[in-house]
Amino acid sequence: MSSKYTRTIVGLLLAALCPLALAQSQDPLTLIASYSLQTDSNIYRLPAAANAQALLGRADASEQIGVSSLGLSFKTKQSMQQFELSATAIDYQYQNFNYLSFTATNFDAAWRWSFTPRWHGSLTATRKETLNSFADYTGTFERNVRLDTGSALDTEYEIDGPWRLVAGLSSSRESNQIALVAGSDFSNTSTNVGVKYAYASGSSIAFRSRSYQGTYLNAIIPSAG
Prior knowledge:
Blueprint: H1 3-23, E1 29-40, H2 52-56, E2 63-78, E3 81-94, E4 102-116, E5 119-131, E6 145-160, E7 163-176, E8 186-198, E9 204-216
Antiparallel strand pairs: 1-2, 2-3, 3-4, 4-5, 5-6, 6-7, 7-8, 8-9
C-alpha cells in the first residue's frame, strides 16, 4: 500500500470522526500540552579522541533540547462501531545545533468495526517522525529525520463456539531524509490468514500463515571494506 493509500485511509477515518465528535459531546475529547527540556552531553556520539572544535566549531557536542507538544485524543462508540484518534504535533528546538530543530506530526487512528456481532475487525493507520540517532551513522552532521507510516486491516469471524477465522492485510514504510547504510528506506506489505481458538478466560491461541513482499527503496551498498 502506497502513501497515497495511507492518506486515503486517514482521510476516511477523520471524515468519520469529525461529525461524531460534534454530535457526541458526552464522549471525552482530551487536549494535551507539555514541555520538557532534555540534555545530551554528546549528541553526535563522537569518540573521546575526536576534535570537536574542528568538526563542529564548538568545544564539545553537548546539547539542550526543548520539546513542546500539543495533541488531542478522541474515542467514541456508535452502536457496534468504535472510533479512536490520537494526534500530536511535537516541536524539537536544539539550542547549540539549531539546524537539527524540526516539528514532528504523529498520529494513531483506528476504526474498530463490526458488521455483525460475529464478524468484526479493525482498520488502523499510524504516522511517526523521529530524528535518527547519530549512534546509527557517522560521517555527516546533518539533520536526518525518519518517517514511519503504516496501515492495517484485520478481520475475525466467529465460526462456532470458541473457533474463529482470522485474516489481515498490512503495509508499512520507512523513509529517511538522508539515505542510510544501516536502516535503508523500505516498504513492506503483508497478508495473513489463519484460525484462532478463544478461551472463556479471554486468552486465545492462533495459527497464521503470513506472506511478505518488501522492497528497499534506495539501498546503499557499502564498500568491500
